[in-house]
């Protein structure tokens, strides 16, 4: 929603995996919120703390809202939950709707419409759960790209 918890966590984690795999010159990673609550702000300090404990750096990220051009520029628009999925579909030009997916579609339970819960109003455990889920889906997304997109460019 506001781009300070889940999305920047996914951004930092996936960016880390992409760089580790040597694909950072081929894959652009970015995150944005569906609401303009926190534009220009860094990620939530709790998200940053938990991420840093596992080696992911988020301090340089800043919240931004989804822009019309994002639907044209990016091949994948990944939503953390069904509410954001619906908001993105409503904003997307028709020809780009197929780019919108739930992020956890790349997790182990892809067939179950799993959502990444918003940890904002909870405690540390919520942020740890989000990070666990994001790591899982990021690995799945990277494997998907490795098998489908990136191999064509290698």
Care to describe what's here?
With 154 residues, the protein is mostly helical. The protein has a single domain (6-153), classed as Rossmann fold. Helix content is 46%, strand content 4%. It contains five helices and two strands. It has helices spanning 6-21, 45-53, 68-73, 82-91, 124-153; strands at residues 77-79, 100-102. Strands 1-2 form a two-stranded parallel sheet. Helix 1 (6-21) packs across helix 5. The protein starts with 5 loop residues before the first helix and ends with a helix. 34% of the residues are buried. The mean pLDDT is 95.
Please indicate the count of domains. 1
What multimeric state do the chains show? single chain
Query: What string gives the helices and strands in order?
Result: HHHEHEH
Biggest sheet details: 2 strands, parallel
The CATH class is Alpha Beta
Counted beta strands:
2
CATH architecture: 3-Layer(aba) Sandwich
Q: Residue ranges: pLDDT <50 for 5 or more in a row?
A: none
Strand content is under 5%
Which homologous superfamily in CATH is the superfamily?
Answer: Response regulator
| Radius of gyration over C-alpha positions, nearest whole angstrom | 15 Å
For the residues shown, what is the average pLDDT?
95
- Give the proportion of residues in helices: 40-55%
Class from helix and strand fractions:
mainly alpha
Span between N and C termini?
35 Å
The fold-level CATH name is Rossmann fold
Number of helices: 5
The spatial strand order of the largest sheet comes to 1-2
């Amino acid at each position: 929603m506001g781009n300070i918890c889940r999305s920047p966590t996914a951004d930092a984690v996936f960016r880390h995996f992409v760089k580790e795999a040597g694909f950072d010159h081929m894959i652009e990673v970015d995150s944005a919120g569906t609401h303009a609550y926190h534009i220009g702000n860094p990620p939530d300090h709790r998200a940053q703390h938990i991420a840093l404990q596992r080696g992911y750096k988020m301090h340089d990220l800043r919240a931004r809202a989804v822009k019309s051009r994002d639907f044209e520029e990016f091949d994948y628009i990944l939503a953390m939950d069904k509410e954001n999925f619906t908001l993105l579909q409503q904003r997307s030009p028709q020809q780009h709707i197929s780019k919108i997916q739930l992020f956890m579609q790349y997790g182990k339970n892809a067939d179950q419409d799993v959502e990444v819960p918003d940890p904002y109003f909870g405690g540390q455990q919520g942020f740890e759960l989000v990070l666990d889920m994001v790591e899982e889906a990021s690995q799945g997304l990277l494997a998907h790209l490795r098998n489908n997109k990136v191999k064509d460019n290698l």
